[in-house]
């Protein structure tokens, strides 16, 4: 980097970084009534990855790129596959390059434009066993199912940030992307041969699409204390209906009173190409009738700073989420069932769920000149499915966390404690994950030597049972029990180049 500045001073910054973790993961216990899909895992939660990132800046121009690959083991028997088998894994590659210009066209007008190309590649290995006859062993070696896909996409963005007047700032912009998706899927033989990029089973699917978004934000300072913000986003996709999402906020700020914010808005998620068109001629069918998921929210926030470095915040919110997309089973005889050669029960995505939510959050923070700091946050929420009148799965009513950091010696040695409470939650099948409180204790040694930092601690000091509900894809595994008390050591060294 210093050489670039010496011989090419017009290049204001040149950075090159590499990240290469290699982990065996954590052995965990999965709760399940099925002996073949529950129990302890060992050495199957591995993860290895490589990331190379580079960035070059010249005046108002920036060129950056990334090469990344990741392989992650899947210890659970997801989609009914073998439990605790190292042949169950997911591999991903993500490469991109981007050229961006960002500068000031006039004293009151900023401009940004960028173009990019991305390539995302993924493949999963899912190892199965066959059920056997009664006279044979319980299971026989089975096939490996492979899913493979590539998403090549390019696009760009342009944005103007205009100070119309001392009391008004207007931001407008546009985004465009073009995608080409290629997917394969099918069985390999029982030799567990690796899937290569050129591998092509019978089921092949190619999809291409584009979309563009227009967005704006207008910020008006009506007085020294009062600010009004209006914003919106218009999205057009060639595979679903266009949509406009408005947002607005009123902010009142006073040194004595504090800050009061009233915010309302709408957000959306368009159905994915997978949900709209995926068809494996066996168990899954697409649904081109899907519409956007929509969330309407309103919240009020009050913040105030007190003497002595104390900050207090209170937030109340409510909202409704509509047209949420979920998969459901379609049985033979149903008008939506495609008939032969599909199985009698197929899966299809529908706009099924309508969720109402409201809650209250409180936060307290304090910092002192001596380096002491602490925080306390808690939230209470109520969530209800409008159709079933029940609380959705994995919806805790109460959450809280707290922390305290204490300097022990100058700015070099610090100690901290972190606590977290999670209320009980129900899984999708009615099982209950009990509430828990965890506590982590840390000792931080920063720059003991130039560039050297050491962090040592005990996680889950109280050895609490941490159990979380997980998705239906992992059935019959419903609850995941995390690791107990453990010692952690993290050593970081930064090269001074």
Ends distance? 7 Å
- Tally of helical runs: 2
CATH architecture descriptor text? Beta Barrel
The coarse overall form would be globular
Strand % is over 45%
* CATH topology value: Maltoporin, Chain A
Q: What percent of residues adopt helix (DSSP H or I)?
A: under 10%
Number of domains: 1
Brief summary:
By secondary structure, this protein is mainly beta. The protein has helices at residues 2-7, 273-277; strands at 13-19, 22-23, 29-31, 39-40, 47-58, 61-73, 89-106, 109-131, 139-165, 168-188, 203-221, 226-237, 240-254, 258-269, 293-306, 310-331, 345-367, 373-385, 398-409, 413-422, 425-426, 432-433, 436-449, 452-459, 467-469, 479-481, 486-493.
Describe the structure.
The chain has 497 residues and is mainly beta. It has a single domain, classed as Beta Barrel (Maltoporin, Chain A), CATH 2.40.170.20. Helix content is 2%, strand content 64%. The protein has 2 helices and 27 strands. It has helices at residues 2-7, 273-277; strands at residues 13-19, 22-23, 29-31, 39-40, 47-58, 61-73, 89-106, 109-131, 139-165, 168-188, 203-221, 226-237, 240-254, 258-269, 293-306, 310-331, 345-367, 373-385, 398-409, 413-422, 425-426, 432-433, 436-449, 452-459, 467-469, 479-481, 486-493. A hairpin with a 2-residue loop joins strand 5 and strand 6 (61-73). It starts with a helix and ends with a strand.
